[in-house]
Fold:
Amino acid sequence: MSTIEASPEVGHDEHGHDHDHPPFLAHHFDTPEQQFDSGKLGIWLFLVTEVLFFSGMFCAYAIFRALRPEVFEGCSQFLNTKLGAINTGVLLFSSLTMAWAVRCSQLEQHKGLVGTLAATLSCAMIFLGVKAIEYSHKFGMGLLPAGLFFYDPSNPHPTDHPPYLLYICAPFALALVGVLIWLVVSAASGNKFQFAVAKPLSVVCLCFFVGVGLGTVLESGEDSADHVDVHADPNGLATASVMLEAEKSAEAEAAPAIAASGAMVPVEESVLEILATDPTNVGVVSGLNALEQQTAAAGTSTVTGDGEILGAVTTTEVDVMTPTTAGVFFSIYYCMTGIHAIHILAGIGVLVWLLVRAVRKDFNRQYFGPVDYVGLYWHLVDLIWIYLFPLLYLIR
Amino acid sequence: MSAHAHSEDGHSADGHDFAHPMSVQTLLAVFFALTVLTVITVAQASFDFGAFEVATVMFIATIKAVLVMAFFMHMLADKPFNAIIFIGSFVFVGLFVIFTLGDSMMTSHSFEPRVVELAPAVAEPTITTVDGAP
Structure:
């Protein structure tokens, strides 16, 4: 039997009675391999439930994208591809270090294990830091889930919003301060084990702010280009708002004339869109009334005209950025990326636990299960991001 | 490495070492492939493939997912039963998404009212405001 003995002094006799087992082997298992395989089956089953859990959100995504492809196309322009790509790279690298950590634990390279686990944790923190920039930027612009959505194309960057970035960063700043205090205290008291844990953890906590810095640099670089893009794009959303204004005044002044010129249904829709966004506009109401009277008087036969393209285009443009339609996109965006971020947080939690145990040298070639299981979970989180990134950020 | 020496000694008849450490070269090669595929995904977004866009993106993502599963998740070296369970879950995801999507395609008009149909509901409160404020 090649099972590692409890201690060298116990002697190398065969697997005799129950208590002759290494401390890492639970009583109800015969061999470390059996224990490992059982745990592995368990974690694979857990991953299956995770896949099914996320599939609900992917299904919602598929349905809404199939129903309103133009909404996804329009709203995706507000997601910063650079930040998404950087986060993808960071997560892939963390997957590499995690797989490497499993290797280190199998080969009993304890220092390497601590290092690779710390690298994985740092990447997770950078990911969250970049995400904090993305989220706070969108919160400030009013690009929020349906119901809270208040984005206004004429004023895309309102300055009177709460400091969202500060709120998101506060818990991480507290964690950093706490770990640094712990580092100093453990160094001062000469507790070598605690110091060895606190050292990589303080780097990990710092990495969140590295991510925030990285996100800030990329976001500000992208910002001007992004908005120039929107203005220059003839199908862009900023253009839509301008046309909406034009349409609004035209409606108020000469609704019957427009109605007579044709494209009845699109015009009617855009009037209703305006009503939905601006219920206090009295002129539009009279415009609508006039339109209805015109319809009643003319019947249905005179509605078709020489194809007023302006009305039709405006209607599609306006549809995309209304609170209800764009809000649905951002509901899906926040739900999917938010739950993914919660999984990252959970991963950080178990990785910290692994880091402590790695410093304690708990793992060896017959007991590396926990590292392997956490690794599998971490790769699944990476796997989900592999699909989320192109589906949300790369719609053209 | 002492671990290797230990596993290859005379104990192998009774129990073998079940750890299969993946070589650093493999890990780095997989990471490199994943990075290249990410760059390709980002690059293809600037071209217009029209209807094939989603298919292209999903195809590249699936290659990446297979790489991660086969190597980083040790599926190749793992017991086949675990792989069957995990890949089996995607069969059910497929069923779930296809049936739900098909259903929404067929019935969405009945639960997603056209904006025109909302006309009275939207217009009425505004009109009362006008009447109430002479």
About this structure: Residues 179 and 202 of chain A are 6 Å apart (CA to CA). The two ends of chain A are 60 Å apart (CA to CA). Chain A has two domains: 31-234+332-393, 237-320.
